[in-house]
Amino acid sequence: MTKDIKLRLKDVSSSNPGNLEAVFSFGNGHFGVRATNPIESNAVEGTLVNGFFEYSLITYGEAAAYYPKRNETIVSLPNLRKIRVFDDGHGEFTHSKLVDMQLDLSNGKLVEEYELSNDKKQTIKMNVTSAIDQREVHFYGIEYAFEAGTYKGDIYIDKSFVLEEAKAEAGDDIDDPRKTRELKSIKREVVATDDLSQTIAISTAESQQRIEITAYGFNNESPLTKKLALVDEPKVGYGFIVGEKNETGDFAKEDFATIKENSASFWHDTWQNGEVSIAGNDELNLALHYNIFQLNQATGRDGKTNIAAKGLTGPGYEGHTFWDTEMYMIPYFIYTNPEIAKKLLVYRYNTLDFARTRARELGVNQGALFAWRSINGEETSAYYPASTAAYHLDGDIAYAIGNYYQATHDMDFLKNYGFEMLLETARFFREFGTWAKRENKTVFEFHTVTGPDEYTAMVDNNYFTNRMAQNNFNLAYKLGLVLMEEDPEGFSKLGASVEELESFKDIAERIYFPFNDEYQINAQDDTFFSKAIWPFDETPKDKYPLLLHYHPLNIYRYQVNKQADTVLADLLFPETIDDDQLRREFDYYEKITTHDSSLSRSIFSALAARMGDMKKAYSYFSDTVRMDLTDLQGNTEDGLHLANLGGSWLSVVQGFAGMQVTSAGELKIIPHLPIEWDGFEFRIVFNGRLLNINIVDGKTTIKLVDGQPMNIIVNNKSYKLEKATLDILSKGE
User: Any binding-site annotation on 173?
Assistant: First the structure.
């Protein structure tokens, strides 16, 4: 990182405690710690472990065959930040005013300042410093420093876990599908304790999961309960060990210095390979760094866990993984940290048995259908028109596999994981699709399908789905031939054959794509243009998002998009559409898109930038990059919008920089610099090479930081990139 970048309290528009808890939260892929108020927050929640969940029964008024039977809900675990502070008369300092908060994105250290008061209105100061270990991912450390205010006497602190506490709100019924549900089948118990440490176990009744958390004083100097003299301006520090699910680990306790060092070294390496910087707008530069910081914190790194829609910053969406991972978040990792991208795809591979079972439940004898929303890979969505019917997910995963292989040529991954997933998803599309006749031509179609736009459901031939399926077939064909050459035995073990690969190629060539002749654009589906346009002029602002105020069937009757759908396909497959048609499509679909989904604006920003419409690109990007810092969607308190965090990277790198990989496998850059910026710079990893790309007015500078020489296309002209810096003028001179 070129300079220290810190997020301060003044950089966050909303002072709502829930928002601040999410915005300043910590995570390391294994567990997350919300930045709760150490004095006033609930003691029994605030910590989330990736993949630690409980089942509950789904209740249907009218059920049908193969509806999912169980919810999966991430479990909120006891608050690691909570501390109780008493005066010498045993009166508790129960009131806490947040004075300042500062998160250092260069090293992952959070510093806070509070003013505490008791019922007598006496005050003391408390400064809090904390960090989460990014290397040894089971550790978190926090230090409290106290100073006298109007109260000058001794204080007593208690850092023991509190396992039972009444909640301000409760209820199983949740009208907002973005939120989580209360769990009543969680057991918390102390399993070991002494003066310097305490271990608790949290277990679930239905999913049969158990995890242990240990609190301990640093350097044997901080008992969990202790008397402190304010005249000494005392400090106490504590570490936490968050174990593995259903394992009893034996971890050597780390001191605070080690935790902070491991955090700082991780962030140094992360920024070294994947920093994106904006020159000329410090506010947006900070927001972009923040988004990348939080995206890294939320990501599972073990092949067993993934990225929840809210990451580890909050329990919203019940901790479920969606298609967001492959479409919005994996791209960042493919081009900055391919090993993490690989782990996220291995997670999908590890859910393949669930996916095969789901396909059989849908009447498909071959292939696999991955879960729309899940933690462990088992489908949990009770509303199939907006979940199971959105089987473009299979194609989304295939798309990510293809991009990962194209950017790494990781043959071991292809042999052990990648091709099997491509084969199974291609088989599903083959079995679930159908041959049809159109204008005396035999074409392949997909019926009763829901695309990315959840305001349109159960239609025929969603353009995005058909495009993703075609890509899936092509990848299975091409990479199947590669695997057959490299590992014929492995290829045969999967039951694949040349004949099957040829059938995939044939289907891909004959997939039908709906087109609207009147507007000369790709149609979102077969019937989209036969519907009336949603009455936007008659819809009050307080009725958005529409899904919370109108019955789904009412919404489905209209042309209205929750988010990018057809235009998302245009972004993913730039070689399938010319500039004029792209402009027509963008203009039409933009007018009927509400952006009720946080996944929407980044795509419109990236496409507008590619078209050279910099005013719109910049406007959409400004909303995208600061979405959670401004609480644009109104629900940041439930957790950050992780897909949007990845989307902000997409907006810059694939939008303003115009980065894409051609069908021939060459890296391509078509820069568009917003007039509001002096320039921007980013780093990417591509096929074992580290590139630094700097774009200023009139010039693109590319440096091969590490790796062998390569060809790169800039402004449609090919260049040989050597170790020396390559300067390219805007006109390709």
Answer: no
Query: Given 454, 500, 585, 637, which residue is catalytic?
Result: 454
DSSP secondary structure of 390-419: -THHHHHHHHHHHHHHHHH--HHHIIIIIH
Q: Is the pLDDT of residue 137 over 80?
A: yes
Is the pLDDT confidence value at 217 over 80? Answer: yes
Q: Quick check: 162 and 78 in contact, CB under 8 A?
A: yes
Q: How many CB atoms lie within 10 A of CB 431?
A: 16
Contacts of 140 (CB under 8 A, 6+ apart): 26, 31, 33, 80, 130, 131, 132, 133, 239, 240, 242, 259
* CATH of segment(s) 6-59+69-270: 2.70.98.40
- Rounded distance between C-alpha atoms, residue 91 and residue 277, angstroms: 49
Is residue 598 helix, strand or coil?
coil
Q: Are 52 and 206 in contact (CB under 8 A)?
A: no
Spatial separation of the C-alpha atoms in residues 655 and 672, rounded to whole Å: 8
563 annotated ligand-binding residue = yes
Percent share of the chain, pLDDT over 90: 92
**Token code pair at residue 685:** 């990893």
**Mean of pLDDT values over 564-571:** 98
| pTM (2 d.p.) | 0.96
Report how far apart, in Å, the C-alpha atoms of 552 and of each of 86, 455, 460, 531 are: 53, 7, 18, 15
| Closest alpha carbon to 369 in 463, 465, 281 | 465
What are the tokens at 225? 């309960």
The SS3 of residue 40 is coil
Angle between helices 282-298 and 256-274 (to 10 degrees): 110
Phi, psi (5° rounding) for residue 108?
A: 75, 30
Q: Is 454 a catalytic residue?
A: yes
The answer on pLDDT for 171 being more than 50 is no
Alpha helices in 626-733 (DSSP H): 627-630, 642-650
Report percent pLDDT > 70 for the chain.
97
Query: HEC states along 44-112?
Result: CCCEEEEEEEEEEECCCCCCCCCCCCEEEEEEEECCCCCCEEECCCCCECCEEEEEEEEEECCCCEEEE
Closest to 349 measured CA to CA, from 397, 295, 412, 390: 397
Domain 275-313+601-733 has CATH 3.40.50.2300: no
First to last CA, the chain: 31
**For 193-212, what is each residue's pLDDT tens digit?**
998 999 999 999 999 999 99
pLDDT at residue 179 tops 90: no
Cα 188 to its chain centre, rounded Å, is: 29
The continuous run of DSSP H or E covering 605 comes out as helix 601-611
Question: For the chain, which residues make up each domain, given as ranges?
Answer: 6-59+69-270, 275-313+601-733
pLDDT at 713 over 60: yes
User: CB-based contacts of 406: which residues, under 8 Å, 6+ apart?
Assistant: 661, 665
